[in-house]
């Protein structure tokens, strides 16, 4: 796929690594273009662009910024009508131990409201950057899962294909309204990792038999 990646922090860098490893063509951008260039220099098939040049003809955008920066960052790309946007953000408090919104809305829903015409998917938000960078295989050959919620069947299938190309199992999490649950799961995962001391090589999974 041809993908635009916004964000050069831990999650953005991990995505650049994994997308490159899977052979995707990536345009990366961020507030600091020099940092985007530094990330791009580490990986094949990854090029850094200023925000207004980063979209090109790409049909998929991954927003890997802080939630409060996501709308502005997406708008800086230009016209996103009809694009598939994968939102990995979580509306975290300053200490990362809580959410600033929830129950009656979600970060994903608020981003979608601000960007009409975008086909938005919530996903990858339940993964630590360290997990994303290390890949989907855990102890005892357990395979990690990515939960995907969207009101667009096309966008969700695009995200499924992308996640599976990186080796992840996928779980259909229904409509975008269920981002409210996914963001809460992410918040709990962060508590387990940092508050309960389980570390950052953990991830939620749904089991079946």
From TrEMBL:
Keywords: Oxidoreductase. This is NADPH-dependent F420 reductase. It comes from the Bacteria. PANTHER family: DUDULIN-RELATED (PTHR14239), REDUCTASE (PTHR14239:SF10). Residues 3-91 form the Pyrroline-5-carboxylate reductase catalytic N-terminal domain. Gene3D superfamilies: NAD(P)-binding Rossmann-like Domain. The lineage of its organism: Bacteria, Pseudomonadati, Pseudomonadota, Gammaproteobacteria, Pseudomonadales. InterPro entries: NAD(P)-bd_dom_sf (IPR036291), P5C_Rdtase_cat_N (IPR028939), STEAP_metalloreductase (IPR051267). One of its GO terms (molecular function) is oxidoreductase activity.
